[in-house]
Write a structure and sequence with these properties.
single chain, 186 residues, mainly beta, 2 domains, 8-stranded antiparallel beta sheet, 0% helix, 59% strand
Length: 186
């Protein structure tokens, strides 16, 4: 398994601590966590931790200025793709999860905006309930899948989407936010 600091990594894990933003630890669904910092409007990978049963590796399509990690669960048919990027000072984080679409009810964190409760029946997904965090508003979109957009008063946006495809439940949580401080080396 790849570890931070391995020579084959295409992300720069070395940086003077004085030029880094405070580290951000981000939950990658049930797979684990990804830690990164912001340096000169670029994201730098600090750490990756897989939860029990999960393995991970850098995404093969990763570029030098983003953080992309693929998580896989041993024997469960579960996958989580984590990607973070920064554009014009706005951090974009996407966590995509794929799992078997068995009939069940699931509670899903839409980042810090809300808890979204979805129901999977006969290979279809529907929205049962949303429990929004104080300060967040939401709007439901789309009829053929569950699609909800959350917004707070500070300009952060979280998009939650869930759909089924070929017996798989696919859930995507995308977050856009502007960090309070961007550290530059200039």
């Amino acid at each position: 398994m790849w570890q931070p600091g391995d020579a084959a990594a295409r992300v720069d894990l070395t940086s003077d601590a004085a030029t880094r933003s405070p580290g951000i630890i981000y939950q990658a669904g049930d797979a684990g966590t990804v830690g990164f910092s912001i340096v000169d409007d670029t994201l730098r990978l600090d750490s990756v931790s897989g939860d029990e049963g999960w393995s991970w590796q850098p995404d093969a399509d990763d570029t030098d200025d983003d953080v992309a990690i693929d998580f896989h669960h041993e024997g469960e048919g579960l996958a989580v793709d984590f990607e973070a990027d920064i554009h014009d000072g706005v951090v974009l984080v996407e966590v995509e999860t794929a799992l078997p679409a068995h009939d069940r009810t699931l509670s899903w964190a839409a980042d810090s905006a809300a808890e979204v409760i979805i129901v999977i029946r006969d290979q279809r997904v529907s929205l049962e309930r949303i429990i929004a965090t104080t300060g967040w508003t939401w709007t439901q979109r789309g009829d053929d899948q569950v699609s909800v957009v959350f917004a707070d008063g500070d300009g952060s946006i979280v998009e939650f989407a869930a759909d089924t495809d070929d017996g798989r439940l696919e859930v995507e949580v995308g977050t856009r936010w502007r960090p309070a401080t961007i550290v530059t080396t200039r």
